[in-house]
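[job 4471] stage=fold_predict status=RUNNING
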Amino acid sequence: MEIVILKGVAQACQVAARLVESLVREKPDAVLGLATGSTPVRLYAEMIRAHCEAGLDFGRVRTFNLDEYAGLPRDHEQSYYRFMREKLFDHVNINPANTNIPNGLAQDIPAHCRAYEDAIRQAGGVDLQILGIGANGHIGFNEPTSSLVSRTRIKSLTRHTIEENARFFGGEDEVPRHVITMGVGTIMESRQIVMLAFGEKKARAVADMIEGPLTSYVPASILQMHPNTKVFLDEEAAMELKRSEYYKWVYENKPAWQKF
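[job 4471] inference complete, writing structure tokens
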């Protein structure tokens, strides 16, 4: 796990976007795992900029989203299907047939989850997975105590996550209670992971993920076991790290061939 602490969100997303751009230029049919929520929005803006200003070609890129609310139609203003169209897909030349988002209205959810896993395998697996982290340490919608070898499945949201997401729905009563999410085991099979975390509210979860024990109480802590994870933080999200100065020193003194 490589920890990259930068001055602010804009700089962190610019550097993270360079990793995505480098992968897509090197492998035009790359498979990207995508996250939603406020955290990756600036990263997606950088990807759009790279497409519009530097000709980054998404024509053969394939994508798999982490999750979707169960029971929300795709045209709902808070569906992740709509989010991805508004924040990324409608602004680059990606083929809609190459985008995959769990169907929150699937009639047979277990069968749909198995099919989603099959589709990821048939695509050759995820080359680069973008992640955020919840304030309680969740990744995707794998809430605390989720199995660390779990696969795509339906999950119940915790009270904490419902409270966190209430601002998007106009109140807690409007937040769906269930979601379809890639499992922790599914995420861990990605060849490269880019984690983004910003703001003081994420500082405790970030410290637990990076410097705490590996535990299902903090699902993101499993990333300590991933061979190629880069964590991009602003100063506020890094404020509870005990070894932040060391992480900064390592990043600033990388050999030229390791820089990104």
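[job 4471] summary: The chain has one domain: 2-235.
[job 4471] exit 0
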